[in-house]
């Protein structure tokens, strides 16, 4: 009789083979799958490409096909994503019509489209990035310091409480009441239209946060003027005018009344 020597398979052999297969598959994925950096770069490239399409439709006619600028609009090379976010999100761009100053109006782009436009413009040249909430948020802000900084750097145009004011040749400094913290920060960072820019070398990130906190304090919904009526918040100009018209006018009226009474007394 032939002896049949049958080798029995170990009961855990199938499990070991399965684990080895999974390990090989995982190793291949690690080597062959795209890295996170590559995936982020691909997503950023797609965002820039979408932004380029939006730019070609809404911006190229004034700013040039490559953002180089034309006689109808300045160059956008190097303005950065923050400038795009401010101008487009506040509706100032695309401009409705040429003029001494482009006013704020209703925004026609979604935030996703604004981000795409900003990514494309940022790709043309280095510039200020869109600030984060940590940069313009109220945490750690010094309102008193912000008031000093605002009065020294901004009140000449925007009035000492940010109510706005007139400039030359039909230009004006807009009111800052109701403007979001993000857009105030971006305006300081980029200097839109007639406004000078205040980079971190001039006003630090903390300084900008302090100024925003001051504006929120003086223009908040619950803010009450401690001196009674604020007369538009226009400061000594309106207060002096009120003094001349009401105060001096009242004195003149009293003087006329006294003179009239005196004349009647003499006649009688």
UniProtKB/TrEMBL annotation:
Q: Does the keyword Disulfide bond apply?
A: no
Q: Does the keyword Heme apply?
A: yes
Keywords carried by this UniProt record? Cell membrane, Electron transport, Heme, Iron, Membrane, Metal-binding, Repeat, Respiratory chain, Translocase, Transmembrane, Transmembrane helix, Transport
Superkingdom as given in the UniProt entry: Bacteria
Q: Which SUPFAM superfamilies match?
A: Cytochrome c (SSF46626)
Q: What class of enzyme is it?
A: translocase
User: Any idea of its EC number?
Assistant: 7.1.1.8
| Matches recorded under PANTHER family | CBB3-TYPE CYTOCHROME C OXIDASE SUBUNIT FIXP, CYTOCHROME BC1 COMPLEX CYTOCHROME C SUBUNIT
The entry's protein name is Cytochrome bc1 complex cytochrome c subunit
The organism is: Streptomyces bullii
């Amino acid at each position: 009789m032939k002896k049949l020597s049958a080798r029995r398979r170990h009961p855990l052999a199938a499990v070991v083979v399965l684990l080895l297969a999974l390990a090989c598959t995982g190793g291949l994925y690690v080597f062959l799958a795209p890295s996170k950096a590559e995936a982020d770069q691909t997503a950023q490239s797609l965002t820039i490409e979408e932004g380029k399409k939006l730019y070609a439709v809404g911006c190229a006619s004034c700013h040039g096909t490559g953002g180089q600028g034309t006689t109808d609009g300045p160059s956008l090379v190097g303005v950065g994503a923050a400038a795009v976010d401010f101008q487009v999100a506040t509706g100032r761009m695309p401009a409705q019509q040429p003029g001494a100053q482009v006013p704020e109006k209703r925004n026609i782009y979604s935030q996703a489209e604004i981000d795409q436009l900003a990514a494309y413009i940022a790709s043309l040249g280095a510039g200020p990035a869109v600030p984060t909430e940590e940069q313009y948020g109220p945490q750690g802000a010094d309102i008193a310091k912000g008031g000093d900084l605002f009065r020294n750097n901004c009140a000449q145009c925007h009035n000492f409480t940010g109510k706005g004011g007139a400039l030359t040749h039909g230009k004006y400094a807009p009111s800052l009441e109701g403007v979001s913290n993000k857009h105030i920060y971006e305006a300081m960072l980029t200097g839109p239209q007639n406004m000078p820019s205040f980079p971190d070398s001039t006003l630090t990130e903390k300084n900008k946060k302090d100024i925003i906190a001051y504006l929120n304090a003086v223009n908040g919904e619950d803010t009450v003027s401690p001196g009674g009526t604020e007369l538009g918040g226009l400061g000594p100009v309106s207060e002096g005018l009120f003094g001349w018209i009401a105060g001096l006018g009242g004195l003149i009226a009293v003087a006329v009344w006294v003179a009239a009474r005196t004349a009647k007394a003499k006649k009688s």
